[in-house]
Amino acid sequence: MMGGDRGANGHAGGSRRTRPWPRALGRSVARRTLALAFAAPFGFAACTGLAGCGFSMISMIPLASAQHAPAASGAAPPAAPPAASSVASSADDPAGAPAVVPPRRFGIGRQADAVDIAGWDIDVRPDGHGLPHGRGSVKEGEAIYERRCAACHGEFGEGAGRWPALAGGSGTLAADRPVKTVGSFWPYASTLLDYIRRAQPFGAPQSLRDDEVYAVAAYLLFLNDLVDENFVLSRETLRNVRMPNAARFYDDDRESAERAFWNANPCMSGCKDSVTVIGRARALDATPPDGAPRAAD
Ligand code: HEC
Fold first, then answer.
1. Which of 6, 148, 224, 287 has the fewest CB atoms within 10 Å distance of its CB?
2. Within a domain: residue 84?
3. What's 208's domain CATH number?
4. Which of 19, 28, 149, 220 to mutate to test the pocket of ligand 1 (most atoms within 8 A of CB)?
């Protein structure tokens, strides 16, 4: 059943549906917040646009490295400035010739430490490896979803305006217009945790606590009719969630399935006795007639 059908069934009705932001406004706010999210790992206090961020990135890096450089991370101390190190003194060189020592480091940045790496190393695998501690119920998820997600994804995951749908679409994958959603397409529930935790809500990624991510993921599973309303999602229960489309994902088998096609000696000339033209672009109205105005004119 499509997520949109729930609304049409009178469960909610269009009137309660949250209005999407005006698109242009939404995009620019999202872009600005994204820039902020990008900036955060580098330790900027604030920046209001990509250009601003770029500027502060250049001016901040040497500062950060100076603060952290030698003792704090146990990294090798930065090399002396290249100008001083590139031609070493000949004092202890028996031959007396100046030794040219290429700078091995530029003296900026520092070795990533365990805390830095932990901030980036947040992937969750289909077998559950990497799942954070936490839990959240469908009911808790509903409240969070309505506040943080519904403006774009629709109250029932049907997608508001042109924002993506997250529910419904089951049975449409082979149709002319497949509706690919979490429920109809995604093979693993772990991806929900992984993706929401790293990238959503769009424009404010990584602003949800792990419990909130579990809750909102539980609610999305519920909107896709995959769990009931009393379900609580956690590291343990997530492993038991089976996604309907999982079996249709398989390892790339083109090497065997298309073996006949992969010919080591492909025919390069005279491959067919005769050639029959079965269609022409003009018949499809794909070729504008001579002298017709071009679209840009
Ligand atoms: C400002 C609008 C906006 C908000 C708010 C928002 N999203 Fe999204 N969401 C998007 C956009 C845009 C994409 C597609 C991003 C892409 O493809 O890079 C997306 C993609 C997704 C997807 C993947 C859909 C797919 O099938 O590929 C999931 C899951 C998702 N969002 C969940 C959430 C959740 C959960 C929340 C609330 C915590 C949320 N989103 C809030 C705009 C939004």
1. 287
2. no
3. 1.10.760.10
4. 149
Residue with tokens 């998820």: 141
CA nearest neighbour of 119 among 45, 214, 205, 48? 205
Please determine, for residue 237, whether its predicted confidence score (pLDDT) is greater than 90. yes
For ligand 1, the distance from its centroid to the CA atom of residue 111, given in whole angstroms, is 33
Residues with CB under 6 A from ligand 1: 26, 30, 148-149, 151-153, 163-164, 166, 181-182, 195-196, 200-203, 208, 216
CA gap 125, 136 in Å, rounded: 19
pLDDT of 238 strictly over 70:
yes
pLDDT classification of 258: cutoffs 50, 70, 90 = confident
The dihedral of CA 272, 278, 280, 286: what is its sign?
Answer: negative
pLDDT at 248: 93
Which residues span the domain enclosing 133?
A: 3-7+125-248
Segment 210-231 mean pLDDT: 98
How many other CB atoms sit within 10 Å of the CB of residue 31? Answer: 13
pLDDT (0 to 100) of residue 102: 74
Question: In this structure, is residue 98 part of a structural domain?
Answer: no
Q: Determine the atom of ligand 1 nearest the C-alpha atom of 182.
A: 26
pTM passes above 0.70 = no
